[in-house]
Amino acid sequence: MGYRVAVVGATGNVGREMLNILEEVDFPVEKIHAIASRKSIGVEVSFGDQILKCEDVEQFDFSTVDVVLMSVSGSFSKEWSPKIGAAGPIVIDNSSAWRMDPDVPLVVPEVNPDDVEWANRKNIIANPNCSTAQLVVALKPLHDRARIKRVVVSTYQSVSGAGKEGMDELFDQTKNVFVLGATPPKKFPKQIAFNVIPFIGAFQDDGYTDEEAKMWNETHKMIDPAIKLTVTCVRVPVMVGHSEAVNIEFHEPLDEDEARDILRDSPGLIVIDKRDDKGYMTPKEAQGEFPVFVSRIRNDPTVENGLNLWVVADNLRKGAALNAVQIAELLHARGLIRQKALA
After folding, report:
1. Is 220 one of the annotated active-site residues of the chain?
2. Which of the following is catalytic: 33, 54, 130, 143?
3. What is the pTM of this model?
4. Same-domain status, 147 and 173
C-alpha cells in the first residue's frame, strides 16, 4: 500500500520538480494531490503519465494525506505548516521558515539522517538552503575524518534559485542585449545577463546577507557548531545549477589523495577530478542529475592542513526537490510515516 501525498506549491519550479522526482524514484504513492493557491485552481501539472489539476490549499483536507511536501514562501509556511502537521501528515518544508527552529530537524539524509527520529515534535522537517545542501554533503565525510576548523565559500548561484521570474529575466535580458539593449532589471537588483551580482537576499547589520548567514547557521546545526564558516554569495547568469569554490582548513592532516578517496566512497557524491581541460564538473552538466559533484580537489599550501574543492549540483534537485523526496524515502525506510487507512 502506498502513501497519500500532497505537494503544496505544485505550480512552481521546485513543486513541479518534486512531482517529477517522486515519480522518477518510484516513491510508494497511492494517491497524489497537487495543491496551490486559489489563483492556480485547475492549473494542470504532470505526475508521470497522470495530469493533475491543482486544488485550493484553503479548501483541502490535509487530514486525508500522509506526507506533505511544501514548496512555498517562508511566511506561507509559517502559517500553514503547523496547521498541516497538527492535522496528521508529516510536513517536509523547503522554505527558510523552520530551519533554525530547535524543535524542527533540518535534514540532509547523507549528513544527519538520525535527526528525522525527532520530527514528531512538530510534525515538520526542514529542507536546507539550496547552497547549504550541496556544501554539507561534501563537508561531512571530510569533517568525520579530520575535523574541519574553518571554511571559506564563494557561491556561483543560478537564476533558478530565484524562481521562474529569475529565469525569465535572464532569458529576456540575454536576448534583448542583441536587439534593443537589455531590459531593465525587475527580479534582480542589477542586470544579470552578461554580469554577476555579489548580493543574494537582504543585507544584515554586519554587512553579510541573510543568504550567506543561512549557510553557516544551517551547517552548524547539521554538522558542528564549532566550524568557522564565512561565505560570499554571488548570482551568476546560469539557468540551473549552483557551484561553490570551497577552501577548508582542518584540525588534523588530510591530503588531497586521501580526501579524493573519502569523497569517492561517500553517499550522494561523485568525484570528477582529472587534471586536464575537461576533467571537472560544470553546472550545465549537473543539470537534471541527482548527485553532488566534486572537482578540483587540491592541497592549499598557504595554511596548515588546507584543501580546496569545487562543488556543483542541480539546485532544483539536490538543493531542493530531491532532498525533500529523499527525506520522505528515509521516513518510509524507518517506518516513521503514520499511514492512514484508505477510505
Report:
1. no
2. 130
3. 0.95
4. yes
